[in-house]
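User: My instructor asked us to take a sequence, write out its structure as tokens, and then describe one feature of it. I'm not sure where to start. Here is the sequence I was given:
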Amino acid sequence: MRSALSFLTAVGGARTPTPGALAWFGPVGAAMGLLLGGVWWGAGRLWPAAVAAAVVVAADLAATGLLHLDGLVDAADGLLPHLDRDRRLTVMQQPDAGAFGVGVAGGVLLLRWAALASVRPAPLLLAALWCLSRAAMAATAAVVPYARADGGLATAFGAGGARLPHARRGALARLVATVAAAAGLAALWRVPAGPVAVAVSAGAFAAVVALARRRLGGFTGDILGAAGMVAESAGLLVAAARW
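Assistant: Let's start with the prediction itself. The structure tokens for your sequence are:
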């Protein structure tokens, strides 16, 4: 649990990630969502909806240490331009941000803020979406091949498709159970908006991973962060629709 906290949040101290941490990704994500939901509720009591939404976006960035936002920027710079595979991986390792990364990051943050500003504070919704995105990260690390031959941070989780078949089946079973639990949490918030938001969020995550699989041959840590942010944002947009 502490390893998962350390990897997914700015708390927990510096710890080496371990394969056992993957099972805790979903619960840690749910706890993060509930915490952010509490911030959302409290900020809504003090400020107008637009300001409260901005506070939640900022709190999420602070809680993750901007790790997932950095992944989104790097993934956009690597996946979206017309480049060959090796060049894509090289671009994603560079510390600077290109036009694709800046544009996608700005757009995603704007959409998250607008969606949050359009919905009444809902801790259960955030718990469901954040739980799903982290559980999907864990399943991806256990099932999808790792794209870099020279290793990387995500290889500490036993990534790269080298896990035993029963371990991969276990990861998928946990993901299915987490999706069901997330849909249940979201249903407690609102039906049908909550469960539909969870389903769209899962589809958005899968779409990012599928694009990475096609263009890189697998995933990287940046892909996990990008897919998580895209998934959460897609779920928020669905939740903010006029149901």
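For the description part of your assignment, you could build on this observation: The chain has one domain: 2-239. Try explaining in your own words what that tells you about the chain.
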